[in-house]
Amino acid sequence: MAEIQIYAKPSSLFRYRPLGPKTSRERQALLDGYIFCPSFAEMNDPMEGTYRLSKRFLESHAHETRDARVKLAFEKMGIASMSEVYDHEPMWAHYAEQFSGMCVQYSLNRLLKGLGSDIAISRMMYSEKEPVLLMDGSNESDRARMCLSSKTVRWANEREWRIFKSEKGEAHYGDPNAVTRIYLGSRVSAEDEHEVLAAAAVLGVSVLKMSVDAYSLKFKTVLKGDRSDLS
What we know:
Strand content: 25-35%
Oligomer: single chain
């Protein structure tokens, strides 16, 4: 039986984060080396978790119980969204508080090495149709992750990856070198910038601040890290 393999992986993934009232929380996550995975109920897309049951699934014994277990797995699971890009204007607007937040760059290899065995990382699939649950031997957690790894094609430009945790909470990656760079939005407050710079200095990573030039985003280094930005 053939297997699906991903041979071409991005070297980095990016996580857009709000600041302001949430600055202390985000700063602590950087210093403590974790990515917080919110629950399914906290996701912003009402189409999340949509799926259909295959004919064989519907005809199977106790299919209602199996379906209920998938929905329960949704409710328990922790999910963190990341992207392959850091300079995506709509994501700065939607996920980084109207350009006043930050975007953290992570080494994918270091995340994979540091995250625990209860963590799965998935590249999102974008489709015109919702996913279908099959009678293929998958357990409810695998089925839930499959459903939550698919979105309508209208979200495709986000180039999203997801971290799945068995339950809501902190996904610790251990290695402080997993964070390789931090980008600040053009509207970041002086107070928030100061807090992020302080955290970056402890981690030894560079910080770049955005400026807007007509329809282009530019980033200038405001803190040079004392170690190389490793991928």
